[in-house]
Amino acid sequence: MLAKWFGNRTFWKASLRLALPIAFQNLLTSSFALVDTIMVGSLGDVPLAAVGMAGQWSWLLNIVMFGFTSGASVFIAQYWGRRQMEGIHHTYGLALSGASVIALLFTAVGFAAPEWVIRCFSPDPVVIELGAEYLRYACWSYVGIAINQVACTALRSTEEVKLPMYISMVSVAANAFFNAVFIYGLLGAPAMGVRGAALATAISSWISPILLYAISWARKNILRVPVSRMFGFSWAFVRQYVVVSLPVLLNESIWAGGTVCYNMIFGHMGTQHYSALTVFRSIEGLTFVFFVGLCHACAVQVGKSVGHGDYDQATADGRRYALIIPLLSVAVGLVMIALRPVLLLPFNVAPEVAETAKTIILIYGLELGLRNIPYNMIVGIFRAGGDTRIGLMCDILAVWLMALPLTFLCGIVWHVPFVWTYLVMLLTEDIVKVAICLVRFRSRRWIRPVSDLS
């Protein structure tokens, strides 16, 4: 009976083989941001808030890329279930083309109009100046980030999870090294402050894709594909890819746009509050990594089963993850709450900022079990099964029609205190999403095979 709900040894072996390397890679990626936050935080609360606001532009790109690559992973995981290599290669080539174009657009805006980007989050002229200074350098990392995300998605979806992890180790180490050199002026380099942090980000972001492709070429893995095959897809394939992938891209873009709007509201509630939010998000990224790994493992297993045509197995695996992830989330949330003073030790921020960050962690820790239910179901189960539209419906209703207007009213119109506004945002969004997702999972209408497409 327990095996039905929690899985047997075979289930856990397959899950952890995929989840642990992916989780560790995401831990390294989160460390990338954490290093920036700690080092820039030593320059003061205003530079920290400025870099946090500038980082929203690259965060938005990352979310759009996640939506783009999530659409690709639906195809690749199900093609992998049938070992249809040509379909995998075509999907990879199409995803790489689209992601590069999107990254170039983000780069153009970040370089040409950085003040406009920062002004969306804060009216403070000092914050705008520092944030624009950072963004003008950091935007040159965007194409490298996009190429790396597509490549890692192709590898993960075909169960090659260790190589991206090793490459991330090198990239994070390089980021920490270049941060120290350029921020503080070590080894004869000039002390560049926030510009140094941005330059370190730009350099280290290109290390990952260069190493990834060099090693992949030598090892002859899935990324070593003749150009003619990678870009030899038909227009019929493009149309079908767009039909399946566009809702995912819109879903992530709409969710990201809503989150950016939340941050605009929080930014206009005070620079100090945004500094606390920047600190919290660095900690959140570290604690969330294991759930990202489990979610990706869920997506690969469910996608493979749907590709095989074994829908009962896909449902059983989805049910197990739908139970395990919230239970683990409650445990992690309680640990976060207990360790709040320790988690904040690396950050050199004002006492008021630290206290606000502590309260945010308390709220988030208590709510984490609820928050991870729709995350896993939408990203790990529904998309892998081929249902890419339900997430879009959730975010339109929960974020844009309910949580975002209520957050605006609380934070800007009614002047509700910051932490209460943050709580209203979380609960409104997540309760609505959980209700929709539970009904959808029970219906099994999320099972929609795509691997028989050409």
Describe the structure.
With 454 residues, the chain is mainly α. It has one domain. Helices cover 84% and strands 0% of the residues. The chain contains 18 helices and no strands. Helix 3 packs antiparallel against helix 11 and helix 3 runs parallel beside helix 13 (289-308). The longest helix is centred in the N-terminal third of the chain and has 38 residues, at 45-82. The radius of gyration is 21 Å and the shape is globular. The mean pLDDT is 85.
Keywords:
single chain, 454 residues, 18 helices, 84% helix
Please outline what is shown here.
The chain contains 18 helices and no strands.
Distance between the termini: 40 Å
Query: How would you describe the shape?
Result: globular
Name the beta content range: under 5%
Helix content: over 70%
* Helix count, DSSP H or I runs of 4 or more residues: 18
Instruction: Give the overall pLDDT as a whole number.
Output: 85
User: How many separate domains make up the residues?
Assistant: 1
In the predicted model, the low-confidence regions spanning at least 5 consecutive residues are none
The radius of gyration computed from the alpha-carbon positions, rounded to a whole number of angstroms, is: 21 Å
Structural class: mainly alpha
What is the element string, with H for helices and E for strands? HHHHHHHHHHHHHHHHHH
Number of DSSP-assigned strands: 0
Largest sheet: none
What's the structural blueprint in terms of helices and strands?
Elements: H1 2-6, H2 9-41, H3 45-82, H4 85-112, H5 114-119, H6 125-138, H7 142-157, H8 162-184, H9 194-219, H10 227-230, H11 235-267, H12 271-287, H13 289-308, H14 311-338, H15 340-343, H16 351-385, H17 390-413, H18 418-443
Helix pairs in contact: 2-8, 2-12, 2-13, 3-4, 3-6, 3-7, 3-11, 3-12, 3-13, 3-16, 4-7, 6-9, 7-9, 8-9, 11-17, 12-16, 13-14, 13-16, 14-16, 16-18, 17-18
